[in-house]
């Protein structure tokens, strides 16, 4: 199925998705939004992997995506736990207000 | 040669005493320290005499006892070895015996004033000194000798600064140490020179090699001998390095008697005599020795005339007498010089111990102007002191007369008439200032406070007994060295020392024998001068109550002040050496250390800190800034890869 889409289109879509994620990560203030944006960027990478895998006719691309998904799941649990802990402590998850660790 | 005791027992016993006193002395108390401190030296004396008596009645062949090799490096090797020959035997005989007497005296002198710890410290240092001195005397090579040489310097420093809580004592100790180091530096250089020339430091190799081939080493030997003599000048307090000895009187009086009168300060004379073969091959060096000795003798005697501190007079007297000994060495009369070392040890130790008894009775007062009339209160001290004074002044037939006369005769024989005149004048001055001392201290009426007068008392037996023994020896010791006119075979002392004064092949100023009439004339002259000095001293200070000297001082106040202030040599050295050195050190400290070294370090630290101060503002603590810089970094990397094709 993926093979019917030209690789360049897949890569453009992947790059667009990545930029969306990046913009979100840089511009949003809510920790959860930033976290979601990072997930978006990771999925952009996944898309590129699948695109290359299809174009080259190998399975390694798809294989790697499973690893990324697994790691993302683990990361999500740790990240969310951190946010819960943060919220209990500061009653906010606005990253602009979490800046104790500075000069 | 089978003997009961090895030579090593002699220094080992005081060393053991030192260790016991310093490790356990404080805990085990004063009786233990007295027993160990004096006992170890007493035993060492017994052991020493068990070797000396057979030695002197035997054939005088040197006995060398090697313990082990010590340093071996390339062609250099030095053994731990001791040597008993006539010279070291003579030194050992009085060092152990006088040392023992002074240890006994110290028990009485120090016992009541000191804490347990101080008492133990005192005796441990004294024992360590005995060990070092015996190593110095008995060493078989220059290196072993040097160990003793440094050891006695250390002990001298420790004991001068014994009352370390008094600033002048601590300063005096430091001064003695620093001045001695200057001399030691010369000694070291001399040792290097000897090793370069002879490839060995062993007495049995150096001296025969030099004697066998006199011409070969001659020019270099002058330098070597002068270096060695610098060492002797430092240790034996000669001009220009004598300044430490008068200050050394800050130590306890028995220490002054043992170290700064009888034994340590004669180490320089001993060393020069030990190296007589080298010195005799270097006539220029000999001349320097003679002139320095003569100058020191008269210079110190003049200073002694105007001192008011009883110990200072004796200190300058010691410097002056040491000058005499070097004068003898300088004209080649080593036996006469050593004889004066020998007799001087007895009467000068007696004088110092006597002054200690006086100071003890006066409750610490050392100013003779506040004494007077002590003869009736301290009869034993007075009579022993008087005997030693007459011996020092050179009144026949006491010890000092024979040794001093032997020196003067040798100087005359050597043809140095100026030095002879200086020596004769010094003899007169010596008699004068000693009589002045005795008159001010023991004659007239008491000039101290009533309280002091009330407390005047004769010293305990542990103090008076050494005085009596030393005074007796001051009277009789001279008979070992009778002059030729009185004894068939001349001086027995000189005959004993002959093995260490070998004949050399070079034509040494062939000593023309003095005729008997000339010798009688010399004896007459020295006796006349001594008696004149004594009489003037008595009539000016004893009977005249100081009226004549008072008028002299009033007539030439500048001259009197100059002499009383010791020719302001200390002040001169202060201006010439101490202050420039101080300024140099301050300069190095302020400029090189503080400004340059510290500056470089502080500057680099400052820049690191500055960079940190500026860069830390990058750490905003805001996670989005970090994310942005991550992204910018990524863009930068991409640009690098894509744009520039890396």
Structural key phrases:
heterodimer; A: 103 residues; mainly alpha; Helix Hairpins; B: 646 residues; two-stranded antiparallel sheet; 25 helices; 2 strands
What is the secondary structure topology, with strand pairs?
The complex is a heterodimer of chains A (103) and B (646).
Chain A: H1 7-27, H2 31-56, H3 60-90
Helix pairs in contact in A: 1-2, 2-3
Chain B: H1 9-57, E1 63-73, E2 76-84, H2 86-110, H3 116-138, H4 142-160, H5 167-198, H6 203-212, H7 214-235, H8 244-247, H9 253-262, H10 267-274, H11 276-280, H12 283-305, H13 310-330, H14 334-361, H15 379-393, H16 399-413, H17 417-442, H18 450-455, H19 461-476, H20 492-497, H21 516-543, H22 547-555, H23 557-564, H24 569-615, H25 623-643
Antiparallel strand pairs in B: 1-2
Q: Count of DSSP E strands of chain B? A: 2
Rg from Cα of chain A = 17 Å
Helical coverage of chain B, percent range: over 70%
Q: What's the overall geometry of chain A?
A: elongated
> What is the string of helix and strand elements of chain A?
HHH
List low-pLDDT spans of chain A: none
**pLDDT averaged over residues of chain B:** 89
User: Which CATH class of chain A?
Assistant: Mainly Alpha
Question: Outline of this structure?
Answer:
Chain A is mostly helical and 103 residues long. Chain A has helices spanning 7-27, 31-56, 60-90. The mean pLDDT of chain B is 89.
Describe the protein's architecture and organization.
The complex is a heterodimer of chains A (103) and B (646). Chain A has helices spanning 7-27, 31-56, 60-90. Chain A is mainly alpha-helical. Chain A has a single domain (2-97), classed as Helix Hairpins (Orthogonal Bundle), CATH 1.10.287. The mean pLDDT of chain A is 89. Chain B has 646 residues and is mainly alpha-helical. Chain B has a domain at 573-643. Chain B is built from 25 helices and two strands. Chain B has helices spanning 9-57, 86-110, 116-138, 142-160, 167-198, 203-212, 214-235, 244-247, 253-262, 267-274, 276-280, 283-305, 310-330, 334-361, 379-393, 399-413, 417-442, 450-455, 461-476, 492-497, 516-543, 547-555, 557-564, 569-615, 623-643; strands at 63-73, 76-84. A two-stranded antiparallel sheet of chain B has the order 1-2. In chain B, β1 (63-73) and β2 (76-84) form a beta hairpin. Chain B is globular and about 120 Å long. The chains are: A mainly alpha (103), B mainly alpha (646). The A-B interface holds A 22, 25-26, 29, 34, 95-96, 98-103 and B 616-617, 619-624, 627-628, 631.
């Amino acid at each position: 199925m993926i093979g019917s889409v030209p690789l360049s289109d897949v890569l453009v879509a992947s790059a667009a998705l990545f930029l969306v994620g990046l913009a979100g990560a840089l511009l949003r203030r809510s920790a959860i939004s930033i976290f979601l944006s990072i997930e978006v960027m990771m999925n952009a990478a996944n898309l590129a992997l699948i695109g290359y895998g299809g174009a080259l006719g190998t399975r390694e691309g798809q294989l790697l995506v499973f690893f990324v998904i697994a790691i993302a799941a683990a990361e999500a649990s740790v990240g969310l736990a951190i946010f819960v802990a943060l919220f209990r402590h500061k009653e906010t998850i606005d990253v602009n207000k979490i800046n104790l660790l500075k000069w | 040669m089978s003997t009961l005791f090895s030579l090593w027992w002699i220094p080992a016993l005081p060393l053991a005493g030192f260790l016991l006193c310093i490790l356990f002395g404080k805990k085990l108390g004063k009786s233990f320290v007295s027993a160990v401190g004096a006992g170890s030296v007493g035993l060492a004396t017994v052991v020493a005499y068990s070797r000396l008596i057979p030695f002197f009645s035997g054939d005088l062949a040197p006995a060398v006892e090697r313990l082990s090799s010590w340093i071996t490096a390339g062609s250099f090797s030095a053994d731990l070895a001791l040597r008993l020959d006539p010279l070291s035997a003579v030194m050992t005989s009085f060092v152990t015996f006088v040392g023992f007497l002074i240890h006994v005296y110290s028990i009485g002198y120090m016992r009541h004033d000191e804490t347990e710890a101080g008492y133990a410290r005192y005796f441990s240092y004294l024992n360590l000194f005995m060990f070092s001195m015996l190593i110095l005397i008995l060493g078989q090579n220059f290196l072993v000798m040097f160990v003793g040489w440094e050891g006695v310097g250390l002990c001298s420093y420790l004991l001068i600064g014994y009352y370390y809580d008094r600033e002048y004592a601590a300063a005096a100790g430091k001064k003695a140490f620093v001045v001695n180091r200057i001399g030691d530096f010369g000694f070291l250089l001399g040792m290097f020179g000897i090793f370069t020339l002879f490839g060995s430091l062993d007495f049995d190799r150096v001296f025969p090699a030099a004697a066998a081939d006199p011409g070969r080493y001659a020019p270099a030997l002058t330098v070597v001998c002068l270096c060695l003599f610098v060492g002797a000048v430092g240790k034996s307090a000669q001009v220009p390095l004598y300044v430490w000895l008068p200050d050394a009187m800050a130590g306890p009086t028995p220490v002054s008697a043992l170290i700064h009168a009888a034994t340590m300060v004669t180490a320089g004379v001993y060393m020069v005599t030990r190296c007589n073969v080298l010195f005799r091959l270097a006539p220029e060096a000999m001349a320097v020795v003679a002139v320095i000795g003569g100058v020191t003798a008269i210079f110190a005697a003049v200073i002694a005339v105007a001192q008011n501190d009883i110990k200072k007079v004796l200190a300058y007297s010691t410097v002056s007498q040491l000058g005499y000994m070097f004068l003898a060495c300088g004209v080649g009369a080593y036996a006469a010089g050593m004889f004066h070392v020998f007799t001087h040890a007895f009467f000068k130790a007696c004088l110092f111990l006597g002054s200690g008894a006086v100071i003890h009775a006066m409750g610490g007062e050392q100013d003779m102007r506040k004494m007077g009339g002590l003869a009736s209160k301290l009869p034993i001290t007075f009579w022993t002191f008087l005997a030693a004074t007459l011996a020092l002044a050179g009144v026949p037939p006491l010890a000092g007369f024979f040794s001093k006369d032997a020196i003067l005769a040798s100087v005359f024989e050597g043809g140095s008439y100026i030095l002879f005149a200086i020596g004769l004048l010094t003899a007169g001055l010596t008699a004068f200032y000693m009589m002045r001392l005795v008159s001010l201290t023991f004659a007239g009426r008491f000039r101290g406070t009533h309280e002091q007068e009330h407390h005047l008392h004769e010293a305990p037996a542990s103090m008076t007994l050494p005085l009596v023994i030393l005074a007796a020896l001051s009277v009789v010791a001279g008979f070992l060295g009778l002059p030729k006119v009185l004894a068939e075979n001349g001086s027995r002392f000189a005959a004993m020392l002959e093995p260490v004064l070998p004949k050399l092949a070079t034509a040494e100023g062939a000593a023309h024998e003095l005729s008997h009439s000339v010798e009688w004339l010399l004896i007459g002259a020295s006796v006349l001068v001594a008696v004149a000095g004594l009489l003037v001293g008595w009539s000016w200070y004893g009977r005249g109550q100081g009226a004549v000297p008072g008028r002299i001082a009033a007539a030439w106040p500048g001259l009197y002040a100059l002499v009383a202030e010791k020719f302001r040599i200390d002040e001169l050295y202060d201006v010439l050496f101490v202050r420039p050195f101080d300024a140099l050190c301050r300069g190095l400290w302020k400029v090189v250390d503080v400004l340059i070294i510290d500056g470089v370090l502080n500057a680099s630290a400052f820049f690191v800190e500055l960079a940190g101060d500026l860069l830390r503002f990058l750490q905003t603590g805001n996670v989005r800034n970090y994310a942005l810089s991550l992204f910018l970094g990524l863009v930068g990397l991409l640009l690098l890869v894509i744009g520039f094709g890396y």
